[in-house]
Amino acid sequence: MKRTIINRENLTQCILKKLITYNPDTGIITRKKLDYDMRVYFHPGNFTQWNQDAGKQLGVINTHTKRNNYQTVQLSIFGVNYTASRLIWLYMTGDWPEHHIDHINGNSIDNRWCNLRDITCQENLRNQKIRKNNRSGKTGVYWCNTKKRWIAKGSVVENGKNQAKHLGAFHSLEDAIKARCEWEESQGDFTERHSQIKPKAANQMKR
Q: Three-class SS string for 118-129?
C-alpha cells in the first residue's frame, strides 16, 4: 500500500480530527484510536504504535533560550513539528491562522481556546510583558552609552511593515518612561500587561 504523505500544505481539519482530540476547556491534546483506513498516512509500524498510545497526551514544552526562555507546546504529526496553538486553530476553525497566535493572558503554554487569538505581529508585540533582560523597567526604554541618554522608542506599521519610531532621548529615566507611556496611551491598543512599569529593574541600571 502506497503511503500518502501529509505535511503543512495538505494537513486538513478533517484529517487532524481523526488523529487527535482537543479539549478547549483545558487546552490538552490527546491521541485518538485510528480507524484502519488511516494506515495510508503512516510509515509501517507507526500506525500500530499510534493506536497503542491512544488516549495519551500529545505535546512537549519547548523552551526557547534565545528568546528569553519563551516557552511553547510543540508536537509532531507524521514527522512534522508544529506549535500546538497553530494546530488547535486549524482544529477549531478549519483554517490555518492568518497571523500570529497570541496567548491573551501571557501564558504561552496555556492553550485553552478562550486564551487564543489570531492577531498581527504588531498586536502580538503590544500584548507582550516586559522582557526579563530589560534593565530600564519599561518596554521601549533603554540606556544609550554613546549618547549618554535614555532612549524611548516605539513601533508602528508602515506599508505593511513594522517600523521603529523614535520618541526622544532624555537625561532622566523618568522622562523617557513618561514619553513611552504617553505614546502607548495615544496608540490606544496596548494591553495593561504590556504597559506595566518595573522600577526595581531600573534601579539596577548603571548610569
A: EECHHHHHCCCC
Residue with cell 534593565: 135
| Cell numbers standing for residue 187 | 496608540
- Cα angle at 136 between 133 and 142, to 5 degrees? 90
Q: How far apart are CA 48 and CA 134, in angstroms?
A: 49
Q: How far is CA 157 from CA 61, 164, 165, 190, in A?
A: 32, 9, 10, 14
Q: Which amino acid belongs to residue 133?
A: N
| pLDDT range class, residue 184, cuts 50, 70, 90 | confident
Round to whole Å and give the CA distance between 202 and 191: 21
Mean pLDDT lowest for which of 72-76, 162-166, 178-182?
Answer: 162-166
| Residue bearing cell 540606556 | 143
Dihedral sign from CA coordinates of 140, 100, 76, 5: negative
Q: How many CA atoms lie within 13 A of 21 on its CB side?
A: 12
pTM: 0.67
pLDDT at 134: 83
pLDDT of residue 207: 47
pLDDT band at 112; cut points 50, 70, 90 = very high
Cα distances (angstroms) measured from residue 113 to each of 40, 50, 116, 126, 184: 31, 25, 5, 20, 28
Which set of grid coordinates corresponds to residue 20? 487527535
Q: Which long-range contacts (CB under 8 A, 24 or more apart) does 73-76 make?
A: 73/109, 73/111, 75/29
